[in-house]
Amino acid sequence: MSDLQCDVAVIGAGTAGISAERAARGAGASTLLIDPNFAGTVCATVGCMPSKLLLAAAKRAHHARTADIFGISAPPQIDGKAVMQRLRRERDRFAQGVRDGFKRLPQGVAITARARFAGPNRLLLDDGRSVTAARTVIATGSAPAIPGPFQHLGDLILTNDNVFELPDLPESLAVIGAGVIGLELAQAMARLGVRVAVFDRANQIRLSRQPAINQAIAQALGAEFAIHHGSSPTPSRVDGKLRLDWGAGRSDMFDHVLIAAGRPPQVAGLDLDRTGATLDERGMPTFNDQTMQIEDLPIFIAGDVNGARPVLHEASQEGAIAGRNAARFPQVQPFDRSPQFTITFTDPPIARIGKGPDDAACVGLSDYGNQGRARVEDQAQGSVHLYADSQDRLIGADLFAPGGDHLAHLLLWAVIEGATATELLNRPFYHPTLEEGLRSALRQICRASDTALPPNQDCGNPPGS
């Protein structure tokens, strides 16, 4: 096999890598997309989509189980094998769509191999070939971290990389980590009838910048499954099952343990030290998050591998920025980034948007514990905290509320547009909807910024809103 040359080599065919290769090729560069498997993106195969399929099944079960408040009796009969079969069937369809995209790449662009650096412009492939690349984009993603005490447990260990391969739902599950992945999957499993316990070293939930929201999350989710804060359990294998010991002599047995202790960047084996980049104690380089360039090198880093904003839409944007700049190097252009935006798909959803309370001149609160539409749906819990500057322009939000994944998009778009609380209050709110619950927070911001309320807001909310 002969060695290869290109303008831009992209290492990793996930969301960021696909976006980077497309952007670089679109800017006129010759490209190579290098990946050992071309299996599909993390989102499609082991992340966003399979987890939402599990959550969707769990929500249906929960609605059936709690329907008696509406005068409807329908206790669910959960077929764990059928749940997992549908999950994999739909997951595979999403993943196949990504793999079909690889087939449409120009001939010779996709290289099935592992790559490592031999210098800032040279890569070595594990098939014996080398690549001379004028510029390189690193997009190797992240992988689950397995804490040392759990590494010896073999097939008792689950991560989001293999939990969706279970042929049936387990009877019991321990979850290590009360972050996004841990809480989403813990709630899904619990609602599907699995006995779940979550263990986390922190003394409280830390998914929101608002302590009140973190307390509300802990209270709501703690009513569905056990959450043990401030705990670092010791695992052992007993008769083919998992035993966890923690605290003052407490212990329990589980079928499996789901490790959700983070997904660190996959930089091992890249030999980044050979690029000339300065690496920190974790082996990570410094990069510019508006250009994605590593120092002044012809190397860019995008997506989960840089550890900055590990969510899909950010990986896609970062890949596009890195690909365009790699094609144009050394004329590197900084790009404005959208406000930070994350959603945790618990029920209710949790979201963080833009700047937080420390940057706000005004804060408004909408309580969804007695909001009209939320009560209609038997989902009355949580709150929305809006942040604004002194001119009542929205700059961010934290929320834990019914419909929060949809409310969060509206709020993000308002922040991007520089909308003021007054402008939003001047727009129509249909009654009864979850959206009209935002008006309480918007009015508070107007009052705190000494901005006059629009005339149509002087009369207050419709009854029950």
Automatic annotation (TrEMBL):
SUPFAM superfamilies assigned: FAD/NAD(P)-binding domain, FAD/NAD-linked reductases, dimerisation (C-terminal) domain
Residues that, per the record, bind NAD(+): 177-184, 262
Cofactor(s) required, per the database record: FAD
Gene3D superfamilies attached to this UniProt entry: 3.30.390.30, FAD/NAD(P)-binding domain
All residue ranges annotated as the Pyridine nucleotide-disulphide oxidoreductase dimerisation domain in the record: 342-440
Keywords: FAD, Flavoprotein, NAD, Nucleotide-binding
Keyword Calcium carried by entry: no
InterPro entries given in the database record: FAD/NAD-bd_sf, FAD/NAD-binding_dom, FAD/NAD-linked_Rdtase_dimer_sf, Pyr_nuc-diS_OxRdtase, Pyr_nucl-diS_OxRdtase_dimer
Binding site for FAD: 52, 140-142, 304
Residues of the signal peptide: none
Residues annotated as catalytic: 431
Disulfides per UniProt: 43-48
Keyword NAD: yes
Family per record: Belongs to the class-I pyridine nucleotide-disulfide oxidoreductase family.
PANTHER family associated with the record: MERCURIC REDUCTASE, PYRIDINE NUCLEOTIDE-DISULFIDE OXIDOREDUCTASE RCLA-RELATED
Protein name from the UniProt record: Dihydrolipoamide dehydrogenase
Lineage: Bacteria, Pseudomonadati, Pseudomonadota, Alphaproteobacteria, Rhodobacterales
